[in-house]
Amino acid sequence: MTPVRVLAVASEVYPIIKTGGLADVAGALPIALKAHGVEMRTLMPGYPDVMRRLAGAAELRSWPDYFGGSGRLLAGSHDGLDLFVLDVPHLYARPGNPYVTAEGVDWPDNGVRFAALSRVAADIGRGLVPAFVPDVVHAHDWQGGLAPAYLHYDGGPRPGTVMTIHNMAYQGKFDRSLASAIGLPSHATFDVHGLEYFGGISFLKAGLQLADRITTVSPTYAHEIQSDEGGMGLGGLLRERSSVLSGILNGIDVEVWNPQTDPHIAYRFSSEDLAFRAANKAVLQQQFNLDSSDEAPLLGVISRLSWQKGLDLLLEAIPTILDQRMQLALLGSGDRDLQDRYQAAARANPGRIGVTIGYDEVLAHLIQAGSDALLVPSRFEPCGLTQLCALRYGAIPIVSRVGGLEDTIVDIGEAGREATGFKFAPVTADALAGSLRKANAAFHDKAAWRRLQRSGLATDVSWRNRAGEYAALYRGLMASRRA
After folding, report:
1. Which of the four CATH numbers 3.20.20.60, 3.40.47.10, 3.20.20.140, 3.40.50.2000 does domain 277-457 have?
2. Does 173 count as an annotated binding residue?
3. Which keywords accompany this UniProt record (predicted)?
């Protein structure tokens, strides 16, 4: 097995800092790749949480002026992850969310902040750290999208490049005047085969146009984003580059998400003995002030509250939840109007609907362990991770037929395969309500429900096979560049 060195570039990495599924992937994939002969180090920004956890990291390089202020490149490790950290306080030493202000508005210098990250990634790719010269630079989402662009426009020998799309909706769009400030040639901003994007520039578009290989996080999403609608302005580019585009399903960290050892749930249990799920359900009902009843199916939601996630459709389906004598426990935050409407629904239906606004990792684990079913009614979903966790914990997924939800859940009506949940299409409130009614009927058939649970629990949701696909991609890229 040929050893491979890969530099990953990511704006968030679990368990250090997380706002979404990107962090889970960036945290789990490097560890899973070790079994496949791939040494991956991850470059990330030096946010306050990162600097606290990497106290004592070694300084590799310093600059008196790095994109407008002093900066350092550090090397350290955390929880089995080998990390490079770009410590540039004037860009990253800010509290809270890494992308937005306390008011929820994008930081006005986000273009410079993540160009700086991509610039140093390209420099590492060209040998800035002699002890680690990567064969491949793997950029995640728009925040790393300029790494392939810098490597391209610098000219000369370079490593192979991979660009992974976690969500097409976030494209890193900026005014073309930014190019000179971040050290890119002006002609790149006027070239349709470069950064130019509807009169401005897009970091995501740059990565998709200039990387050697493109991946996204499920096969179905790889197909969807080649359409005009699913591509969100970049479908034509992706159709042109379809020969280098592939979909590789995400996995989850099965050590973190393991009901036998999970420190965050009230009662641990195994796939062979689900008796303690009922005890977790009772604790979850208490947490959300829901009536205690084993006969009421408890629906869990762990989600960003947004149009993409279909959480407005779930509001429309609340009459069905009430008519079917189901309960709802929702954890999430996002759109202010959706937050207000869910809180109003909880006030109007005490004991039946419980809502917690915000994100709480401990509570997320309890929802997986105690819910009878987990709802993911997304309008589009590149992969989705919560439904994979649900399979691992014996909560039955109820999902829309899009993206990775289509690829990871087997509907109860599909022939020839062991069903693991319920899927609905089209993505409407009526179709969701129909799926809720089906799930309610199955819940009251204890044998049918247990079959769904057993089949879900037997599903491999780990990174083991997925990491192998990435390893094969890297090796294939290296071979093609040598040819």
Report:
1. 3.40.50.2000
2. no
3. Glycogen biosynthesis, Glycosyltransferase, Transferase
